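Agenda item 2: iron/sulfur cluster complex prediction
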Amino acid sequence: MEEAVLKVRHLKKYFPIKSGFFRKTTGYVKSVDDVSFDIGKNEIMGLVGESGCGKTTTGRTILRLMNKTSGEVLYNGKDIFSMDKNSMLKIRPEIQMIFQDPYSSLNPRMTVGEIVGEAALDHGICTKEEVDERVKEVITACGLAPYHIKRFPHQFSGGQRQRIGIARALILNPKFIVADEPVSALDVSIQAQIINLLVKLQREKGFSCLFISHDLSVVEYICQKVGVMYLGSMVEFALKEELFKNPLHPYTKALLSAVPVPDPKVKRNRIILKGDIPSPANPPSGCKFHTRCNYATERCSKEVPEYKEIDKNHFVACHLYE
Ligand code: SF4
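Presented output:
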């Protein structure tokens, strides 16, 4: 079997809670709590869950944009957290991020040519003489026109700005991209264009991708496998077809029940979850989902369910499947 491009093993990212006059650590927000998964070559994996479940922190930590608390992130077999500055600098162009908000992630004082070309020059992908041509090529592939190179971010629509964000990542010929809710800030009519562009570019350029989203219909369209996170933990993971056909975890079932069906004759029984998502600073005991789960028993509030493979490539953390 081909080696995974990215292997995440028992990744944890905790943020200390400081309080009192001496700013003593009195607890931790467990944003990412023992998360493991693999992403293969040319594969797009979706990471879904409600806001605040730790998706973005997972994405940023695996790119080493923030330090981990523990665990391993292996990129082509090498732990990125054990790499020294030089090795990290070498692989940085290969691992890129597309941000959620296309406006705040672009420097308003720089032209598109400067924004997209900057990293290519920094990493020696091309020379000063070649950079304009290279930028024009990449922005054209992303659906913009060569003359846009001289314009500033405020002169573009939201969808066009996200195209600039994609071009900025692609100019470095990345092998692995974290796309963090790349369409959620955009108008619905523009979302499909950007998703189709990402799919097209991924097929042409052949990069692997962690696609972070709360929109399951987009994930169903674009991804080959899907992980579901709740309060920092992975509660279910499966190949896309399997997850959408046979969701096991009560949280996944609730999320899927909210996905709109395009056929007006088909009625879906919407599962309404009780209450709000609890604070990650003070998560419920046992199964973190027990305060909202319709199937919860006494055991669920006491014992943490083991995250295990119950069918080939189908993992779940729930006492119902023991
Ligand atoms: Fe619900 Fe219990 Fe399963 Fe948690 S372990 S999802 S509370 S049934």
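Discussion summary: The chain has one domain: 6-321.
Owner for follow-up: CH.
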